[in-house]
Design brief:
With about 100 residues, the protein is an all-alpha fold. The chain is about 50% helix and about 0% strand. Helix 3 packs across helix 4. The longest helix is centred in the C-terminal third of the chain and has 13 residues.
C-alpha cells in the first residue's frame, strides 16, 4: 500500500512488490501534523500494528497520531520530531 500510494501521489515509479528496499526508502516523503489521506492512514495503521494507538484510523494526522508517533520514535531511539520521515518509516516497514 505504501509503494502504491507513493506512486499515485508523487509519481515515484516504484515497483509495487511489498518489499522495503533502497528505492522505497528514497521515495519516502515526510508526513506531519495536519496531513490527510492514504499516507496518513498507512502511518496510523502501521503505528497501531506496532502497539502505538493513534486513536481513530481516520486518515487525519491529529493529536492522537502525533502522540503515538512521538512515543514510537522515542522507543525506537529516532529523533522524536513528531514527523514521519525516512527514519520512522524504516523502523515501521524494514524487516
Amino acid at each position: 500500500a505504501l509503494q502504491t500510494e507513493l506512486n499515485k501521489q508523487f509519481n515515484k515509479k516504484l515497483v509495487v512488490d511489498g518489499k522495503w528496499g533502497a528505492k522505497t526508502k528514497a521515495a519516502i516523503v515526510t508526513v506531519e501534523k495536519g496531513a490527510k489521506g492514504n499516507l496518513t492512514w498507512i502511518l496510523q495503521a502501521a503505528l497501531y500494528t506496532e502497539g502505538y494507538n493513534p486513536g481513530s484510523l481516520d486518515s487525519i494526522f491529529g493529536k492522537g497520531t502525533e502522540s503515538a508517533l512521538s512515543k514510537f520514535q522515542k522507543d525506537k531511539r529516532i529523533t522524536a520530531d513528531k514527523k514521519a520521515g525516512k527514519a520512522t518509516f524504516t523502523k515501521l516497514f524494514a524487516a
